[in-house]
Each structure stands twice: as C-alpha cells, then as structure tokens.
Amino acid sequence: MIDVLVVDDEKHVRNLLVRMISTAYECNPVEAENVETALKLCDRYKFDLITTDIKFENDENLDGIEFIKRLRLRGIFTPVLIISAFATPENIAEVCKYAPVDYLAKPFTQDELRRKIKDLLDYKKESFERYLREAEGLIHSNFPGDLDKAEQIVRTMFSLMPSSPIPHYLMAEILEKRGNSELAERHRNAAKALDINMKGYRKGDELESD
After folding, report:
1. Cis before residue 29, ω within 30 degrees of 0?
2. Which residues does the UniProt record annotate as the domain Response regulatory (predicted)?
3. Is residue 69 situated within a structural domain?
4. DSSP-assigned letters across all residues of 11-37
C-alpha cells in the first residue's frame, strides 16, 4: 500500500484520480484543493507519491510549479506526477529541475496513469539505493566534512522512503561517530520499530522495497 496526495482544484478531477489510484494500488489517497492546503499536509504527513495540476483557478500565485519548488525547499523529495491539460514545454523543462517529477496529459487512461506511477515509484527506489551507497561511503570515510555530507544525504533518504528503517540506522552511525550516543540510540530504536522483519542493517546489504 502507498500513501498518495492528490492536489487539484476541481472536485470531479480529484474524485476521478482517487478512484483510479485506489483501484490500482488499494490505497486511500488524501485530497487537497489548493497548494496551501497541500503544503500543510506535506509538512504534517509523509507521502509516497503526489499528483498535482499546474493551473489553479483560485490562486494564480501558487501553481503546481511553485508547489514543487516549495516542496524541495522544505527538503521534501517525494515523487510528483503532474496531471494537467495546461502544461507547456517550458513548464516541463522548469519542473524537471526538481526531480523526481513526471508529466501526464489530460485526458488519460487508467493504464497510462498506472505506468506513470510505477515509473516514479521505481525511480524513487533507484534513487534511494544510490543515496544509500553514497552515504555508506561517506560515513566510513576519514575525510573532513564527509559526515556532514552523509547527514544531508540521509535526510533526503528520510524524505524519499519515510517508512524505511535504513535512514535511521545510518543516522545512528553518524551520531555515534560524533559522540552523540543518546540520540544515536533513539534512531536505532526508531529503526527497530520500522524494521518489521528485525533484519537490522549492515553495510552492503541489498535494499528491499518498503
């Protein structure tokens, strides 16, 4: 099951997307009718995927592009699927700087929507795996500043897969190296709570889907 946020100012479009996504993934998407509400939800909850329109009739200053920019500035790197009839090549080029992002033109079919969502979720997993290897290398490096770089990568991993125990295990390693055993133990406990198979984590382990 995945956690999805559907952002669109048209109720009938939200209803359609919720029905199609819930049918494909057996989930209960959360709805937002504008960017301001969506940002508040993203600050409060962790989503695996966000869909958004570009154009919002009631707020010209907060469109889908600005929404994605503000998400990234908040350190939220959840994959975003833009679903719109108003996208232009310039729009798409602009938002592609804030990956992971993809675009689906209205109207669309159930299969087209499912493929786009699958591609974004696969991209998220691949990105997480890449960040994992980078963080591992930095944590076990002796170069000055590498722990700070590792921490930034791990924070991005938290945003990509909030239900994974691995970022907590990595953060615990970072904190132990800094001598903060108390906070490291809190992250280990959080990791164990999320690690339903109680596998733990060792450098070089293969990543399983969350």
Report:
1. no
2. 3-121
3. yes
4. HHHHHHHHHHHHHHH----EEESSHHH
pTM for this one? 0.73
Closest to 131 measured CA to CA, from 174, 176, 173, 166: 166
Burial of 26 (0-12, 13-18, 19+ CB in 10 A): exposed
Q: At what angle do helices 166-177 and 110-139 cross, to 10 degrees?
A: 20
**CA gap 172, 180 in Å, rounded:** 9
Residues 58-101 have pLDDT tens digits of 666 678 889 999 999 988 889 999 998 877 788 788 887 888 89
14 lies in the same domain as 104 = yes
Q: Specify if 206 maps to a domain.
A: no
Identify the band that residue 198 occupies on the pLDDT scale cut at 50, 70 and 90. low
Name the packing angle between helices 166-177 and 146-160 (round to 10°): 160
d(CA 183, CA 146): 19
